[in-house]
Amino acid sequence: MSQRKKTLHSYREAARSSYTLTAKRQDSLIFLSLLMSNPKPLLHVRIVSPQQLILDTQANSVSSKNLQGSFDILPQHANFITLTENSPIVIRPATVGPASQRGEQKPLTFKFPLAIILVKENTVNIYTYIQPNLEKK
After folding, report:
1. Tens digits of per-residue pLDDT, 61-113?
2. Long-range contact list for 94-101, CB < 8 A, 24+ apart?
3. Which of 67, 112, 122 is nearest to 90 (CA)?
4. How far apart are CA 44 and CA 122, in angstroms?
5. Which among 12, 63, 122, 124 has most CB atoms closer than 10 A?
6. In whole angstroms, what is the distance from residue 105 CA to residue 63 CA?
7. Which helix (H) or strand (E) holds 17?
8. 26 and 85 co-located in one domain
9. Residues 90 and 64: beta-carbon distance below 8 Å
């Protein structure tokens, strides 16, 4: 191969690799901007009794146990309804702000004789202190 062909080949390779690096950098920037504009989704958790609203907060997850076993609820969870009896319900509150200022928030644990947990569109409603009607007719 002549010197001129080698030089042209080198220029083409350099241009191709430069384009690849630029495209990869552009893809990375697009991905980062999507991450920044779409922060990690959170759960909106409410614990409701007939008398009052016990808790209304943002959380990373909710865990408990039903008759089938232990379960965790994370953001983007499918619609879900379950009944828990005398099982701890653990709520891991969301931490907000820079890592240096956040501090680690401790999980909140609640235990109710009976609770209905309803999950829909990143909202977890926990209904408790339910008084079932056990009258015989």
Report:
1. 999 999 999 999 999 999 999 999 999 999 999 976 554 445 568 999 999 99
2. 94/42, 94/43, 94/57, 94/58, 94/59, 94/60, 95/60, 96/58
3. 112
4. 6
5. 124
6. 16
7. helix 3-37
8. no
9. yes
Query: Does residue 134 belong to any structural domain of this protein?
Result: no
Work out the burial of residue 29: count CB atoms within 10 Å of its CB; fewer than 13 is exposed, 13-18 middle, 19 or more buried: exposed
CB contact at 8 A, 129 and 52:
no
What is the distance of C-alpha 101 from the center of its chain?
Answer: 21
Task: Enumerate the β-bridge partners of residue 57.
Answer: 45
* pTM given for the model: 0.65
Single-letter amino acid code for the residue at 72: D
Cβ-Cβ contacts under 8 Å for 11 (sequence gap 6 or more): none
